[in-house]
Amino acid sequence: MNSSQEQQLQGRPKAVARRGLTLRQQGILNSYLFIAPFYILFFIFIVVPFFWGIGLSFAQGGILSAPVFVGFDNYSRILQDYRVQTVLFNTLRYVVTIVPTSLVLGIIFALLINHHWTRWPGAMRAILFFPALASGAAIAQIWSYILLPHYGILSFALTKIGLPDIKWLTDPRMAPYSVALLTVWAGVGFQTLVLSAALKNIPGELLDAARIDGAGGYNLFVRITLPLIQPVVLFVVVISTIGVFQIFDSVYVLTQGGPQFSTQTIVGLIYSYAFQSRQSEGLAAALGVFLFLIIMPVSLFQMFFLRSNVQY
User: Fold this and answer.
1) Domains of the chain with bracketed CATH
2) Mean of all residue pLDDT scores within the chain
3) Rounded to whole angstroms, how far apart are CA atoms 160 and 265?
4) Is the pTM of this model over 0.90?
């Protein structure tokens, strides 16, 4: 063996590293060490409370007092509570109203941002995404002044153009749609950002070829653009649906569930059970499990229905 071969062998990494681990094993170990903090926090704050809540749903007390096992009594009590049917209807109305509206507006804004004649697309993205950076309670507090009767900005503008003053937050017929308006305004920026990124990833050659073949704007969107971004649309729909099912802060700040319980949601009733009533922690946990049993099949149905039509 000559000197050049010896130098090449010395320059190669050793097959066995220190402490008896190979370099590949050390790399795997380092990778798990880097992601360990996330999984530790996920286990402490997600997994443990999830199973603890399920156990609490079969008991009375459990937070400030010793839990007493009551079986399915909490579930039967929430099913007999007339408020549960009301908040379930309210929450489903929010889902049906907010999710499609946000999706349509998000697609429209994303198309506008990515259009070649749009000036300052970065500023437009920043304006649309800005509400997503603020907390829901802060946004709801601002909108509570906008929607004030007589003195609110929106009511003042309506009266100046000759329209009647609308009781945005005190009319049981209008209050749910006022909450929906706030939620759409706060969430459409995130959806626009995600959908805009999906539109940028569409190969320009496909769009150019379709234009050469005579495809107009409508056919170009329906037959090329929409099928290619459908996986992202699936993501947006599922995430939005889960988020709308858990609406709480905006309702609590704007109306506290009123008027006449017309804006109250399932999460708001869970809060009422847990912190505004005595010895109702088990009822809150049971209603939380009930909410989980609603969200899970709805999300699975959306994934199955939309994924079956996904085209790559």
Assistant:
1) 3-56 (no CATH), 77-307 (1.10.3720.10)
2) 84
3) 34
4) no
